[in-house]
Amino acid sequence: MRYFYALGLLFCFSNLIQAQEIFLPDSIKKQTQAVRIDHSIKIDGKLEESAWSTANPITNFVQVEPFQKQKASQKSVFKLLYNKDYLYIAAVLHEPLGKKALRVTNLQRDFEYGRSDQIGISIDGFNDERNAMIFMTNPYGSQRDLLAFDDQVFDEDWDGLWRVRTSRTDTAWIAEFSIPWQTLRYQRSSDFNTWGINFFRMRRMTNEQTIWSALPRSFTPARMQYAGKLSNISPPPPKANIRFQPYLLISEDRYDGSEFYDQKNGSKVKMGGEIKWAITPNTVLDLTYNTDFAQADADRQVNNLSRLSVFFPERRQFFLENASLFAAGLSPIEEYFGGQQRIQPFFSRRIGLDAEGNPVPIVLGARIVNRSTKSNTGFMYVRQKGNEINSATDFLVGRYSQNIGKQNRIGGIATLKNDSDHANITASADGFFRINESTSINTMAMTSKSTNENSTGLAAHYQLSHRGIDWMYWLTQNVNNKAFNPEMGFVSRPDVIENSAGFYWLNRGKWLPKFVRAFEPGGYYLNYYSTTTGKLIEQQWNTNPIWFTLQNGGGFGVLTNHFYQLIDYADGSDTLSFFNVPIQGGKFKYDRFMIVGETDASKKVSLSMNVDFGKYYNGSLTTFSSTFRFAPIPHISMEARFTNNSYSNLGVDKAAGNNQLYTISGRFALNPRVQLIGFYQHNSISDFDVWNVRFSWEYQPLSFLYLVFNQRGFNDFQTQLSNDGLTRIRTNQLARQHELHLIAKLSYLKQF
């Protein structure tokens, strides 16, 4: 009950400070118009066509960072043209220091926001002040695009079909976009429409963010209530359009080791593809056959020092698009908010991957999504091929959400996993409610049931979070009982009740030195209780007394953590183990300390590191991590990461030792469309090695040639057949396991 009292107090507090922190959208919106032309524009980043001189200049940008609503220090000019096929956008970004002032560390598509010079356009074609399509580029023409809803749900891995080219001079950099009407989503209710639109820029040398229609710094440019209006635009009527993307793949596979007994050496040729049909501007159907993800990034290894399961993100394009619609559940919104628990009734990595992250063939799949100003609906079906270990499996997920008012919604999601042995069903109801511009409540109730189990699983959560100009705070509570088992979902930790609350003070007082942008101290508390025994099994007090965000984007801070851990083996479970060191049962109280620092990540050379030290269960542990980045020119970027764990007097045997995790990665780009990317990792635990090297050539928009080299090796206990010749058993002898793949994949996209 005390958490509901706290929720009420935070509700009152959030409304009290809201009026002091956040300015509201202008009642009279900024306006602009696009000029219609009857010919095409050559997209070369030079703006030499005379038509650009007829377009209305869009200027008078204001700052988001560091000083809200103050005039931008450098001039930015955008212009809009359109014809029957394309919306054209030009931008001239004045830079008095010329090319030497530009900061771009790599030419990656979907580059990281805020780490380079960049510009973007947010378009709300439905004019509902909720939906946004965002198109971005940097001075060297890399593309970044995403879909957003309510500045809270993002499809960052959506790839639209559009083009951009850039050029650089001694006084400015220039960008020129062409976006097909078929890529844009909009409704046409008359001959002339009004859309929401905003334009934004990051000048990374001074870490200054500017925008055309003013926005509080606690929001992103996807907050379309603050956008201006593009009026009197007359695009062609929306019509169905189809994207057809077949592929041809040739691979050579080699396996060595008893863990790969069900894999066969040899060459293979594979064909498949995908069809995307935008039936209406609101409804999109995706079909996939003989799906392949050879070009997807390999998972990066981590050393997990917590009692939570590691969450590896989805990297496969078919599942990434519209992922935000299906991603209902509880997750840490960002580094500041929430506890550590993650609960999702649907997690796409349960499809087409085994427990170790190895691919399982997908025969076919279909997904249909409908988004409108009133509701969002999605259905997905995938058929997974069977093998010697697992039978063929059908996966089905359905999602519905209903918009309520201007910024609220309720919904539900249901999943079904069905194979020859059993079926697992999960059903959930959820809601999102925005109390005011910076405060929201996210809540959900879930149940799961398997046909081969008698008990029914239950889970629920709520999370209140506030991100304002001066304060951030949250209150989270969730529960999932021991029987809760969403086989198509993800749960960080079963059989727990988690409670978490915390805050950060975002201070920009005049007392700060000029090189410091903000002083952001804070802290949080969280605990876990077992739903089975009712015992407190983990507790953590975190204080962050020192954190300084620097003007150049770097930062440094000091953190302290006080832990309580209960390891209880009354249920007969195996001994808890870290670094292959078993930990005995009992109660443990210990303190840990962390020092963190990061330099300006936009420079040619940058460094981040942290030292985490102190007691650890019944022993001690010091963890040192560092990342070194080197980007002499935008076309070359390299990164080296190193983590060392040094422990002593740990566990049952009072063990001492060290283990290391090394990562070396690089990106070498002729331009944003021709790149060689690779990484190597070595983990001293199990002597794990992995290589992933990928050549990528986008020979026309969203059509690719990939050449991929994957190699993985590790030590594991050998597996052999039992005397009956049917059952496989583990031996006590370590053996080297090794696999290698050489892949050539050609894809082609045609839009009708």
TrEMBL record:
SUPFAM superfamilies: CBD9-like. It comes from the Bacteria. Residues 243-329 form the DUF5916 domain. The lineage of its organism: Bacteria, Pseudomonadati, Bacteroidota, Cytophagia, Cytophagales. Transmembrane segments: none annotated. This is DUF5916 domain-containing protein. It holds the Pfam family CBM9_1. Keywords: Signal. Residues 43-198 form the Carbohydrate-binding domain. Residues 1-19 form the signal peptide. InterPro entries: Carb-bd_dom_fam9, DUF5916.
